[in-house]
Here is the input.
Amino acid sequence: MSTWTEIGDRTWVRRYDEWDLNIGLVAGSDGAVVIDTRATTEEAEQLREHIRELTDVPVKWVVNTHAHFDHVAGNSVFIDAEVYLHENAAAEENLAGTTFAAAKVIDLGDRRVELLYVGNAHTSGDAVVAVPDVDVFFVGDLLEESAPPSYGADSFPLEWPDTIQAVVGMMPQGAQIVPGHGAVVDVEFATDQAIDLGKVANTISTLHHAGTSLDDALKHTEDWPWPVEKLQDAIRRGYQALGTPQRPSLPLLGPS
Here is the structure.
């Protein structure tokens, strides 16, 4: 059974069995912020009860790390909270909320929570939630611990490595990082996963540059850090971004 774990002063994470999803809670003197709201309204109602078991501080803010249903479907349960999400995430799924473009600060009274957008990655609207006074970062599905990163039909496999490298570059060495799914990780784990994300991008680009067809690339089994079966959407999305591959041709000889 899941329980709250305090990973910093009044900063908690709860890992739910459903979708192996992490939910964050940060409390301040003026209120609390919930990071993601689970996959259904019923699950969100349970979350609300779990929060009440932990603290009496009112939930005044909700932050969605991105627009996928398992992170946003419970928003409506927190009727008194102001919902924050990146403007791209709101547009993707027509979600209601207070949007931001690059950065936003939520004032909890005696501390702050920072919302940051760095670039395309798992989706076009991934938000990083930083709690600077305790060096905790909630990164949603920019990182995953219990499974390979989730490349979906709305992912950006060629841009993801640079985005996560920029995110990791903001973190102090002792930071605690909460992925969307799985156990809390550290900077070393995040750095290693960023390298693997880079391998995926590089392999896609190399195959494309060599003139490999999309069908053949989808069957390519070498050079990937994860099974190619988990990377089908990544390959398709990468090829879509790069355009139709051209067969390499020999250089034309000049006049003798």
